[in-house]
Recover the amino acids of this structure.
């Protein structure tokens, strides 16, 4: 089911020949929109809470802790939704090859 959601706000902080660093801010229920990652990336949560991940394989919930980074390889496809009743923020670092 396709639900109309508020758009998360992205702010690019660095975009050079090596990396793109973007801050993502999600009001409650806001989403990135379905997308595919074209680069390897690292996410550093600035907030502790849950994100709903909608993928071609289904939905799951990721519990994130402020300051505990994780990394993924290029090719990930998903929509990321703030499943909390408060704003959620993370910084995404995309690694250019």
């Amino acid at each position: 089911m396709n639900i109309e959601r508020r758009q998360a706000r992205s702010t690019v902080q660095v975009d050079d020949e090596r990396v793109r660093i973007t801050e993502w801010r999600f009001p409650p229920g806001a989403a990135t929109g379905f997308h595919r990652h074209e680069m390897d990336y690292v996410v550093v949560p600035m907030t502790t809470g849950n994100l709903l991940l909608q993928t071609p394989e289904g939905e799951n919930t990721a519990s994130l802790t402020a300051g505990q980074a994780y990394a993924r390889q290029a090719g990930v496809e998903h929509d990321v939704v703030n499943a909390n009743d408060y704003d959620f923020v993370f910084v995404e670092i995309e690694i250019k090859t």
The longest strand covers residues 19-26. The mean pLDDT is 95.
